[in-house]
Amino acid sequence: MAWPSHLPPPDPLVVKELTARQEELREQVILQKPDFQLNWLAGCDSSFIGENILSVFVLLKYPELELMEKVYHYGPVELPYIPGFLAFREAPNLVKAYAQLQQKPDLIMVDGHGIAHPRRLGIASQLGVLLNKPTLGVAKKVLTGKYEEPAPVKGSITPLTHRGEQIGNVIRTKDKVKPVFVSPGHLMDLETATAIALKTALKHKLPEPTRLADHYAEVFKAEVR
DNA sequence: GCGACAG
DNA sequence: ATCTTGTCGC
């Protein structure tokens, strides 16, 4: 994968190492209908302040979607952003924030793709393997694949395909608002991921877990300054 | 060969 | 992600 001209060229040696690590992790990904009883649903998000990264986790009761916990971890970031390798930059710190949750969730909604990735290991899948926890990804922009624009009415769905296989769904979570891209991360299947993303999308484009994690990232950001 | 590229 | 102004609509 080449890289966008507006980004600094990554070290070929680093990319080689990360690609190898990605392959190891990808082999551990399990895509199947989860057997859990969904009672606790988490959302997470990352934001940056100079050389530091703020990683946030929110815990919601399901299906009420009532906010129960909000935690964060703040520390230095190790790697630059490289398209296709987002998880190596954000996952380590998300794991540290996750450790602070008193009640561990049954499922985690991640801001980014699951298997809708060039090598089928987006940040949602990688984080799921690292935590051995079911995950699904909800991204605002496509990374890989082709799709038809879903109808402008909330609930419309269109498949996201890549190399002959369906890797996710493009779903309209709000009338006349740009759709989001949903894909299973780990210990999850596309049908369930899609249903949960739609069911937790209330009055906004982003489903509640992701939207609240996003919101508290801003709140905590003001706190750490 | 020319673009495109999660956060 | 972050930097940024005004503007449109519920």
What does this structure look like?
There is one protein chain. α2 (86-98) packs across α3. The radius of gyration is 17 Å and the shape is globular. The chain contains five helices and eight strands. The mean pLDDT is 96. It has helices spanning 12-26, 86-98, 123-131, 190-199, 208-224, and strands at residues 40-49, 52-61, 66-76, 107-111, 135-139, 157-162, 165-171, 180-186. The chain has one domain (38-224): archaeoglobus fulgidus dsm 4304 superfamily (archaeoglobus fulgidus dsm 4304 fold). It starts with 11 loop residues before the first helix and ends with a helix. It is of the alpha+beta class. The longest helix has 17 residues, at 208-224. Helices cover 28% and strands 27% of the residues. It has an eight-stranded mixed beta sheet with strand order 3-2-1-4-5-8-7-6, with helices on both faces.
